[in-house]
Amino acid sequence: MVCSLGIEGSANKIGIGIIRDGEVLANVRRTYITPPGEGFLPKETAKHHREAILGLVRESLKEAQLEPKDLDVICYTKGPGMAPPLLVGAIVARTLSLLWEKPLLGVNHCIGHIEMGRFITKAQNPIVLYVSGGNTQVIAFSNQRYRIFGETIDIAVGNCLDRFARIIKLSNDPSPGYNIEQLAKLGTKYIKLPYVVKGMDVSFSGILSHIEELAEPNKRKNKRKKATDEITDEGEVSYSKEDLCYSLQETIFAMLVEITERAMAHCESQEVLIVGGVGCNERLQEMMRIMCLERGGKLFATDERYCIDNGLMIAHAGAEMFKSGITMPLEDAFVTQRYRTDEVLVKWRQD
Amino acid sequence: MSLDILKQGAEGRLYLGEFKGESCLIKERFVKKYRHPELDTQITRQRMKAEAKAAGRCLAAGIRAPRILHSDLNQHKLYMEYFGQAKTAKQFIQETVASKGDLSESILMELCSRIGSTIGQMHSNNIIHGDLTTSNILINPKDTDYEVVFIDFGLSHYNQASEDKGVDLYVLERALLSTHSEQPYLFDAILKAYSKDSGKDQEAVMIKFEEVRARGRKRTMIG
Fold this sequence. Notes:
The structure holds two protein chains of two kinds.
Chain A: E1 3-8, E2 13-20, E3 23-31, H1 42-64, E4 73-79, H2 83-100, E5 104-108, H3 109-121, E6 127-131, E7 136-142, E8 145-151, H4 157-167, H5 176-184, E9 197-198, E10 201-202, H6 205-215, H7 241-267, E11 271-275, H8 282-295, E12 298-301, H9 304-307, H10 311-323
Parallel strand pairs in A: 1-4, 4-5, 6-11, 11-12
Antiparallel strand pairs in A: 1-2, 2-3, 6-7, 7-8, 9-10
Helix pairs in contact in A: 1-2, 3-10, 4-5, 4-6, 5-7, 7-8
Chain B: E1 4-8, E2 13-19, E3 22-28, H1 37-60, E4 68-72, E5 77-80, E6 87-88, H2 89-100, H3 104-124, E7 127-128, E8 137-142, E9 145-150, E10 157-158, H4 162-179, H5 186-197, H6 202-218
Antiparallel strand pairs in B: 1-2, 2-3, 3-5, 4-5, 6-8, 7-10, 8-9
Helix pairs in contact in B: 2-3, 3-5, 4-6
C-alpha cells in the first residue's frame, strides 16, 4: 500500500493531492488569476504560491483524514515549468520530507499528466495528445519511454489561446481558455485563418499574429497588407469577438486532431487520450471523438479536475515511480525548467 | 469497378481498383466531419492538387513516386500506381533489425544513403515533401534489389526557400527519433547522403536546419 502526497506548482496553479492505492483522498488547488489583458509573471506567481501552499497542505491532510505519519512518499514537480513557482513546491516538499522523515521524489510534469489520464480513464496504451499553456505534444509509449511524435515548433496551443484572450481583453477567471470556449459557442461565421501542419508537427505563432491583426486592425504594423472590404470607413472591423473565438478554435483544434490522426496511423493505434489544460475544452473533445469514430477508434478524456494542473497527478505518478523502486537522494531534489517527456525512463510500465 | 478497402491511412481510405484497365490504388479523402465544412473543402482540394502536382514533378525530375493516373476533385479520389509488393520503410527497418542481427546496420546504412540522396534530389528540384516519415517511404523490390519510392505528397509544396527544406529535414529527424529510437545512426546517414545531392543551396539549408532545431530545443522550457 502506497500513500503519496503530491505538490504541483509549475505554472499559475498550485495544487496538493493525496492518493492511496488508487483511491483519491484529496485534490485541492488554487489558481493565480491576473486581471484581463495581463498574463502571469514568474515572480508574482511564486508569491501567490508561497502564500497558499501551507494552507493547502493542511487542507489536503484534513480532507484525506490523514496524519503526516500515514504518508509513504512526498512528490513534487521537478519540471518543466517556470523556475520561481517550481521552487516553491520543491522547497516545501524538501522541508516536509525532512520534517516527517519520508522519502522524496521529483516528478516530470508531463509524465504526471499522462499517468493521471491513464489512471482516470483506464486507457491502456493510447496515443496521448498533451495540450496545455506550455506544451503541445503528441506522445506514444514505446521502448520504456514516452516518445514525442509530434509537437508545436513554436508556441503552445494554450499560449496561443491565452494571448488571444489578452488581446481581446477576456477575463482570466476561471481561465482564458474557458472564456474563449464560451464565446466561441455564440460564433457563427467562419473566418479563414492560416492552417499550419508540418508532418506531425504544428505551428501557432503565425495564426496568432494573423488573428491579432484581425482583432486590432488599428494596431497593424504591416501596412503592405491591403485592407479588406470588411473594414468600414472608420477603420472599424465587422469581425465580432464571438466569430474570432469560434474560428480560432475551429482552426487550431482541427490541426491538433489532424496530427493526432497522423500519429494514430503511423503507430497503428486505436486509442486517444487527451490531457493537459486545453484538454478539458469540450469542442476539442467533440472533434476528437468524431475523428476516432471515423477510424473505429476510442477517445479517452477527463474533466477539469484532472485535466488542469493538479497535485493529484504528481502524487499518482510519484506513487507509480515509488512502487517500481525509484529513489531520489536529497541532493537531486532540485527543479529544472527544461525537462523533456522522453528524458524519463518509464520503469513502471512493463508493456 | 470493385472496391476493396485496403486500409485507412491518416488522410483517407485506400482502395484497390482499376482505371482504364490498369489496376491501381484509389485514395479517397473522405469528408472529415470534425472539421468545419469550409475548412475541410479547402484543405481537401489543396492537398489533392498538391499530391498530384508533386508526384508529377518528382517523376519529371527522375525521382521515383507513384504515377497519378487520374484525379477526381469532386469525389475526392486520386487514382495512382499501386506498389503491391512494397512495404514501408518503417516495416523494413523493424524487420531488418529483428532478422538480420549484426548485418542489419550495414543494410540500413545503405537504405539511408539512398533515402538521403533522393531527398537531396527532391530539394534540389525545390520539391518540399512536408511529411517525411518512414511510413511515407516505400521499399519496392526490383529484381534482386529494391527501389525507394516516396508517397503521400498531400502536405507538399514547391518552394526554393531553405527554411522549408530545413523544416522538412527536421520533421524527418523527429519522426526517426520517435519511431526508430534504437537505431540512432539512421538520420546521420541520411543527412550525409543528403548533403551530397541537395544541390547548390546545401550550406544554406544546413544552417536553416540548425536554426529550426534550435527553435525546437526551446520547447523544452515550459511545462
